[in-house]
Amino acid sequence: MIHWDAHTCLPQHPAASFEPVARLHAAGVHYTSLNVGADMNPLSQVMSVIAGYRATIAAQPERYVLASTVDDVLRAAREGKMALTFDLEGSMPLLDQPDMVALYAQLGVRQIHFAYNRNNSVAGGCHDEPRGLTPLGRRMVQAVNDAGIIMDCSHTGGLSSLEIMEVSSKPVVFSHANPYALAQHGRNITDEQIRACAATGGVVCVSGLSWFLGTTAPSAADVARHAAYLAGVAGIEHVGIGTDICFSEPGLDDTPPGEFDPSYWWPASAGYSNDAPPTFVAPDMWRTLASELRNVGMTDAEAALVMGGNMLRVAQQTWHG
């Protein structure tokens, strides 16, 4: 049984420690997608992070595998190693060039969404004026499908996400988003979006971030509660886990260079506050998650789908090889 964490964040710095990845692995996780950049990160920073992460993975072949295929993930699990790939949060690092998508795939990116909270030239963000997918955005969806990258709609505005799901020829996921019905935050998604995702064959992965779970001290029980709601709306085959843990490292500054305004990306009007930062589930949540999923009525087989089987299926249908 593969345990699949669809999205985690190390510091956006080439020297970031992989100790948090080791903690996830020790807790039973076999695979995670590491974020390597978002719309607020200039290309120079994104490429520096990718280079640094790749070097760290290559330097520890006994512990980590940069996966290209599902077979790589399965082989890493058999050998007691942690499989990793990368994801992009937003299309701005693509520089409005669909050809950039395939290049990122060669570098290890296997998942991408198009807008980080705010509108851009490709799609609308969840904390901006409602807007659909642009003509360039439609070409980008095709490029993502062609490159064997999982199409993600986290952080994306409702209208754009629905249009992406209409256009995509492959399953679409929300790698870290929770049901709005349980926690009324603009980053969460409606039942309409949940059902549309399932209609593509995709998966909605529960985030372990406090704001999106509607609690101040998130736990495995909270994750299980949101997973059970998703299963009720869309079916057990369309639920996954993307803990969205943002690990920090003392002394390592990963602030985007240049004119960076946090209040633009995380607006106070949407409920963000520097005085009340979010908290996250601990990596050890994975040790008790199966039990908590059983507590909300799932069988062992259903819990296995939520904890990794469903996302493994999407990767098999999407990744090349």
TrEMBL record:
InterPro entries: Metal_Hydrolase (IPR032466), Pept_M19 (IPR008257). GO terms for biological process: proteolysis. SUPFAM superfamilies: Metallo-dependent hydrolases. GO terms for molecular function: metallodipeptidase activity. Pfam families: Peptidase_M19. PANTHER family: DIPEPTIDASE, MICROSOMAL DIPEPTIDASE. This is Peptidase M19. It comes from Pseudoduganella ginsengisoli.
